[in-house]
Amino acid sequence: MTNTLREAFGNRLLYIDADREYTRRFREVMTTAGYEVDVVANSAEGLSLCNGKLYNVVVVEYRMPAIDGLEVVRRLGLMGPVPATVMLTAYGSETVAVEAMKLGASDYVIRDAEEKYLESFPAIIHRIRQNRLLIEAKRLVEDSQQAIIQGLRAVVSVADQLIRIDEMGVLYRRTIELVRDRLGMDRVALYLFGDDQTAIHGTFGANRHGDIVDERGFSEPINDEWERSVKPSRRMSDFQWTLSSGPYREWDGQVYTVFGDGWRVSTPILSTRGPVGVLMNDTAVSGVSIDDVKQEILVVFCSVFGSIIERKRAEAELQTANEVLEQRVAERTRVLVQMNRERQHLSRRLLEVQETERRAIARELHDEIGQAMTAVKMNLQALGMVGPSTPQLEDAMSIKEGSLQQVRNLSLNLRPSMLDDLGLVPALRWYLDRQSQRAGLKAHYAADEFIEPIPPEIASACFRVAQEALTNVIRHARAENVFVELRQGESELILIIRDDGIGFDVNRAMERAAKGASLGVLGMQERVHLLDGEINIESVPPLGTEVWVRIPLPDDKAETSERSMADDAHSHTTHG
To answer: pTM for this structure?
Structure first.
């Protein structure tokens, strides 16, 4: 209770009057009413008593010798704490009353001849005390509200600083500094429960010398005292904390040492998952009483701090989980990359074997079977020369011609020899002319001659893609014109096959290819992708279809091509 409240609740009165009879009667009435009354005959003595004792109300006669009542009221107003004053006089004067009230008098009483004023004094004093009590209570509420507002602002500021700290050790140390400096605590220490809730661990604390001490060396099993610290016995509003009496302890780096005893406060730190820890504080440094408002502010802070710790721990757990996941993903990616490389190597090797087999079969058809068919032709022609021509002989000659042409076509389709002998540009020109003539298409061919020589694996891939694309044009496009371009980019080879046919739904075709219904499209994609290239098929019914292929060239090939482009770049175009 503050001094002013004690004054308002107290019952000590001082009566200043030179008339002994009046003082006797006043003391008698007020003593009967339950008050302790001191009386003096002069103002100077009364003022001296007010300097040494705490009076609740001072009653002074206006007409006092030397120092009148108004001067007494004025001087009392300069003292602290200021008692309530009542001006008493037998001379009713509105001017005197107003002046007394201006100087701080609580009331003005006129002494009547019948002395009825004495009967009203107990009620007057009671009313004055009640008014003083209400005024002081209002002031205390306002002060408390202001302290709470300032405290809550400090909590928000402290929380804003703490939430930006990532490292937990730094977070705990900074918490102690801010609780001490911003929330006005003397000594404070932070203790946290272990993950299994069976032990309590120290973090940091502020000692009586104002230093921040590392108390992370402290750890002990949770006992009844620690259990009580998270089950508070004191509740104010919706907040809770525990006040207990015991020894003051300080951490010396190894153990806690005792240096005194007094009141200690423990405030639980809670999260949505349960108790997190305890914040301990006392007033061992200042020696003042525990401040309820400060403790309630500390409870608010601990509630916020529990959420901060929970969030930081969740972030740490998430970070750990992400790191583990990233490691697993990286390992899985490494395995998949390795598997993909092996698959590409096997696919590339398979295509190489296929091309080698095609080349061997084509050569066998051309060299062996082709020569044998030519010999048969010559024999049949010789028979025709030595005798008359017969239907059987003519039929044999016709079958032989058809078979020989089929052998030649089969050989060329498997692997045209000019692809190996002359390169990609002539081979594509020959194949385009040959196929367009058969299908009745107008062929348009453009190629950069400086593009040669092209690596064999790239040449084979481009030829096979063009072969498949032209086959699709002939079978499905209903086109009149077909265009083939072979271009050299800065570091890539570009192949374009375009027609003016009816077009088709590319997405639907890709879905069918993914299901294995169109092996030709899959084959084109596979060949290009094995060389780290890109293939893009665009079709706009009924405007036709365009196939773009981009295949990167080896660095030395790209450099050679760039030099060739600077020297003699030109285009060669043929129309069929």
So the answer is: 0.51
